[in-house]
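User: I'm new to structure prediction. If I give you an amino acid sequence, what do you actually give back? Let's try with this one:
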Amino acid sequence: MHTILVLGGYGFFGSRISQALAANEGIRLLIGGRNIAQAQSAVSKLELSSSQAIAIDAHAANLSERLVELKVNTLIHTAGPFQNQDYSVALAAISAGVNYIDLADGRDFVAGIEQLDSLARERGVFVTSGASSLPALSSAVVDRYLLRFKRLETIRHGIGSGARAPGLATMQGVFGYCGKPYTRLQAGHWQTVYGWLDLQHYHFPKPVGARFLGSCDVPDLVLFPRRYQDVQTVTFHAGFASASAHLFVWGASQCVRLGIIPSLSSFVTPLHWISQWLEPFISDKGAMFVAMEGVGIDDQPLKLEWHLVAAQNHGPYIPCGAAIALATKLARGDQLPSGAMPCMGILTVEDYLAALHGFDIRELPA
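Assistant: Good question. You get back a string of structure tokens that encode the predicted 3D arrangement of the chain. For your 366 residues, that looks like this:
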């Protein structure tokens, strides 16, 4: 059996990944983290003898030795936020000869994983970062439609969430850059924008409808210009199911930009609690879009728009799709490339969505 350790396997995304992988008879699943009680509780809910709870510290000095002792084949790292982490977990996995997958959404973290490429190649292991909606799914969508373009010039994409509040670590990562400056490619030039500002009103397909969206700092902003050479503009926006909640974050981000408050980091815990309390009163539907513009193969202007719509609060399963799909491939013996890379060009849209089968998630192709 292929042994997979999910670090943070009892957390918001980790528990969903663990639930999906536990049903695979070819996988011996280890649910690990510093809180053994939570790990044991997660295992008991699965009611499968092939799953085991492990007390393990992702940043312990002896992590590599532990991975060898546990006979781990693949490590899935879900214990964020990743914005301020180093690559110690990935290096421990490489040293132990273990494949590594993470759900990182930090721009520099995901793009920088390539610095481990030579080490991963030497050990013959597969190492990837950003195995999530961005850039794994977003790039797969662009790759699918790329051949329709003679020249792809603009990629605009975004996510409107449902009611289900993400984990505290995810909110810490997201709110950490509210009102903070970052750069994105706009009309061929790198321009400075500010987190959760640049307010837009986007109309998703029914039943989601119109949502407020704000600009977000994500790995795609730096990775897409590298991958798609003709692209002149790449933007990403995200928003909440509640218009009032989004406008509150937008206003608070303005205060950060103006220096009225230093950051929103100290407000994350109460905001997380409020988000959870409000869940029953907010739409359980969310969606993702990828819009591409350029010149078609017939030399005429071409614009394509792809959507993914989720209901019944199944949206939080979407970021888990890449890790589930990759782990499934590794468990059945598929050959994935040795080396370290952002999670692009590895999964197709079909691969990704197959991992989400059974959930109320539907694709609206371009």
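You can read the tokens as a compact description of the fold. Here is one thing that stands out. The chain has two domains: 2-133+317-364, 134-310.
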